[in-house]
Amino acid sequence: MNEHSGKLFPQPTKETAKYWEGCHNHELLIQKCNSCGHYQFYPRLMCTDCSSYHIDWVSASGRGKVKSFTIMHRAITKAYLAETPYVIALIELEEGPTMMSNVVGCDPKTVEIGMDVEVTFEDWSEEITIPKFKLIST
């Protein structure tokens, strides 16, 4: 496990606990509505498409495309300094939802909109694992 002390750790809530549990198990979970079939992310108590409360957690494929991105050259705190420059991206998952994450494991200058990516996980602590994305080699 890399050094992650001083970083801004997410705080799981009632709505997000299952998501973070999935991440801990290196599985990307998103919500799917049982009434209309709509996939959604970020976690909510009801469907954003039909307002149904019949929502389940399902495994996402973990694949998607870079929808937009920026390269951060200045760390937000000293805890992130060793990672600069790093990519913050909007990833459109195969299932439809968009999530914000990092693209890792490549030169940030090589990232382009439309690139195919797949999820990877960083264990930050015994409790928190962060999903990030890496480029899919073609």
How would you sum up this structure, described in words?
By secondary structure, this protein is mainly beta. The chain has a single domain, classed as OB fold (Dihydrolipoamide Acetyltransferase, E2P) (Beta Barrel). The chain is built from one helix and eight strands, in the order αββββββββ. The strands form two sheets. A five-stranded mixed β-barrel has the order 4-5-6-8-7. A three-stranded antiparallel sheet has the order 2-1-3. The longest helix has 8 residues, at 17-24. The protein starts with 16 loop residues before the first helix and ends with a strand. The mean pLDDT is 94.
Which features does this protein show?
OB fold (Dihydrolipoamide Acetyltransferase, E2P), three-stranded antiparallel beta sheet, mainly beta, 6% helix, 1 helix, five-stranded mixed beta barrel, 138 residues
Short description:
By secondary structure, this protein is mainly beta. 6% of the residues lie in helices and 38% in strands.
Spatially, the strands of the biggest sheet line up as: 4-5-6-8-7
| Mean residue pLDDT | 94
The structure class reads: mainly beta
Helix amount: under 10%
- The tally of helices reads 1
Distance from N terminus to C terminus (CA atoms, Å) equals 29 Å
Radius of gyration: 16 Å
Question: Which ranges are low-confidence, i.e. pLDDT below 50, for 5 or more consecutive residues?
Answer: none
CATH class: Mainly Beta
Q: Approximately what portion of the residues adopt beta-strand conformation?
A: 35-45%
Number of strands: 8
List the secondary-structure elements in sequence, H or E: HEEEEEEEE
- Describe the sheet with the most strands: 5 strands, mixed, barrel
CATH architecture: Beta Barrel
